[in-house]
Amino acid sequence: MKKIFLLGATTLVLFSLAACSSNSESKDSESNPKTEQSKVDNSKFDKATENLQSQLENEGSKEWEYKTINNVTNENITNGTLIEIRPKTDEGKNSLKKIYEDSQTGKIDNQIAILAIQQIVSEAAKDLPDDNSEITLGYDEDNDNSVLLAASTRTKDIIKADK
C-alpha cells in the first residue's frame, strides 16, 4: 500500500514540476517577442565596417571585433547606432594599451600610430548612413571602463586626430 501511495505521490510531483517548467518557458517566450520583432537591419553600416576592416586587418587576420549596437544614447548620439571596435585577444588589448600609454609619454612613433588609427576611424565614419551614428575604437580597461583611442560621427571627430 505504501508503494502505491509513494508511486502516486512521485508521479504527481513529477507532473507538477513538468507543468511548472513548461509554463515558465511559455512565459519567457511571451515576454520576449519584442526582441525578435525589433531586429534592426544593420546592412546600411556594412560599407563603413568593410572600410574599417580593410584598413585595420593585416592580410586577412581577424584581430578586431566589430560590434554594431542599436539604440545608443551618449553625448554624441541619441537613440543612434554605435559601431564599437575592440581587440579580440588579450594580447591585442595589451599591445594597444602599451601603444596608447607610450604615446602619452611622448614616444613619437606611438603617437603616429594613434593618429593613424584616428584617421582610419574618421574616414570610415564618412560612410555612415546618418549623423546619428558613431564609430569608436578602443580597449576595455575592465568590465566597467574602456579607453577610447578614436571616435567619430559622420560629421564630427569626437576624439580628434591632433597632428
Question: Short description, anyone?
Answer:
With 163 residues, the chain is an alpha+beta fold. The protein has helices at 2-31, 33-37, 46-56, 90-104, 108-125, and strands spanning 64-72, 80-87, 133-140, 146-153, 157-159.
Describe this structure in words.
Residues 1-18 form the signal peptide. Keywords: Signal. This is Lipoprotein. Residues 25-49 have a biased composition (Basic and acidic residues). Residues 22-60 are annotated as: Disordered. The structure is a single chain. With 163 residues, the chain is α+β, with helices and mostly antiparallel strands. The chain is 48% helix and 22% strand. The protein has 5 helices and 5 strands. Strands 1-2-3-4-5 form a 5-stranded mixed sheet. A hairpin with a 5-residue loop joins strand 3 (133-140) and strand 4. Helix 3 runs antiparallel to helix 5 and helix 4 (90-104) crosses helix 5 (108-125). The radius of gyration is 25 Å and the shape is globular. The N and C termini lie far apart (90 Å). Residues 5-37 have low confidence and may be disordered.
Uncertain residue ranges: 5-37
Largest sheet features = 5 strands, mixed
- Strand residue content: 15-25%
Taking Cα atoms only, what radius of gyration do you get, to the nearest Å?
25 Å
Number of strands: 5
Taken from the alpha-carbon principal axes, the silhouette is: globular
Coarse structural class = alpha+beta
Elements, N to C (H/E)? HHHEEHHEEE
The number of helical elements comes to: 5
Strand order of the largest sheet: 1-2-3-4-5
Ends apart, CA distance between termini: 90 Å
Mean pLDDT over the full residue set: 80
Helix content: 40-55%
